[in-house]
């Protein structure tokens, strides 16, 4: 298995799970874990909402989309994951069924690592196993704080305040006032807990007022001080 995965090592090393691993360390842990490499065609379901999973998934080729079903039966895009994306790292360690469906939006190659193997290292106790556990804790912690950021957004009173706070945070993470977010317009509306039509109207007003420019999932912030002030209204 490691020989098959060797071409993907740079992508694996870029994930939060295997960050800091050398090629030799990847050889060790992958030989012990016996992960499953699977290919999905565009449109196939990788994980279905309502089902459990006991594997951590790492996207190696293509891209997948996480979808959330709404009460009226429609599906809303929550996020997309490109090569290096990790999913199932929180879900696999719990008894909770998946709240989202993950669908392949292109032909994909995904590596599935058994969660039990991560939690219970082999008898050789390679040092790389300890590093993997640390990385797993960091990955889960990062997702916890990402959830906390969303809660901070949702308690803001106005949609403009939520939008400004979200976009300012994304600009900070990108290190630039021009950036692209991973959410579709429908996914952003779901994330901010608002109607898509209301989101579109507010973005149009913000463009007309010279606060920003936007096209699809790309944004350019034009008046950062005014947007910061709007976060407190």
Describe it for me?
This protein is an alpha+beta fold and 233 residues long. It has two domains: 2-143, Jelly Rolls (Sandwich); 156-230, Arc Repressor Mutant, subunit A (Orthogonal Bundle), CATH 1.10.10.10. Helices cover 42% and strands 22% of the residues. The chain has nine helices and eleven strands. It has helices spanning 2-5, 9-14, 23-33, 115-119, 127-154, 159-174, 185-191, 196-208, 224-230; strands at residues 36-40, 45-47, 55-61, 64-69, 75-81, 86-87, 101-104, 108-114, 178-180, 212-215, 218-221. The strands form three sheets. It has a four-stranded antiparallel β-sheet. It has a four-stranded antiparallel β-sheet with strand order 2-7-4-5. It has a three-stranded antiparallel β-sheet with strand order 9-11-10. Strand 4 and strand 5 form a beta hairpin. Helix 7 (185-191) packs across helix 8 (196-208).
Quick description:
The protein is of the alpha+beta class and 233 residues long. It has nine helices and eleven strands.
Itemize the secondary structure elements and their pairings.
Blueprint: H1 2-5, H2 9-14, H3 23-33, E1 36-40, E2 45-47, E3 55-61, E4 64-69, E5 75-81, E6 86-87, E7 101-104, E8 108-114, H4 115-119, H5 127-154, H6 159-174, E9 178-180, H7 185-191, H8 196-208, E10 212-215, E11 218-221, H9 224-230
Antiparallel strand pairs: 1-8, 2-7, 3-6, 3-8, 4-5, 4-7, 9-11, 10-11
Helix pairs in contact: 6-9, 7-8
State the main characteristics.
11 strands; 2 domains; Arc Repressor Mutant, subunit A; 233 residues
């Amino acid at each position: 298995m490691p020989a098959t995965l060797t071409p993907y090592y740079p992508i694996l090393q870029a994930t939060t799970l295997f960050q800091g691993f050398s090629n030799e360390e990847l050889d060790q842990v992958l030989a012990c874990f016996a992960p499953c490499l699977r290919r999905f065609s565009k449109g196939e379901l990788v994980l279905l909402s309502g089902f459990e999973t006991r594997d951590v998934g790492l996207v190696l080729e293509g891209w997948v989309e996480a979808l959330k079903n709404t009460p009226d039966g429609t599906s809303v895009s929550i996020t997309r994951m490109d090569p290096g994306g990790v999913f199932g790292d929180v879900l696999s360690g719990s008894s909770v069924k998946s709240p989202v469906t993950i669908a392949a939006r292109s032909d994909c190659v995904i590596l599935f690592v058994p969660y039990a193997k991560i939690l219970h290292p082999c008898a050789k106790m390679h040092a790389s196993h300890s590093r993997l556990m640390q990385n797993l804790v960091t990955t889960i912690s990062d997702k916890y704080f990402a959830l906390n950021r969303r809660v901070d957004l949702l308690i803001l009173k106005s949609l403009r305040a939520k939008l400004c706070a979200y976009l300012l945070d994304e600009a900070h993470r990108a290190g630039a006032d021009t950036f692209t977010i991973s959410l579709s317009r429908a996914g952003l509306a779901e994330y901010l807990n608002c109607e898509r039509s209301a989101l579109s109207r507010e973005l149009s007003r913000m463009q007309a007022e010279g606060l920003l420019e936007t096209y699809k999932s790309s944004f350019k912030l034009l008046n950062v001080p005014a947007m910061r002030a709007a976060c407190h209204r």
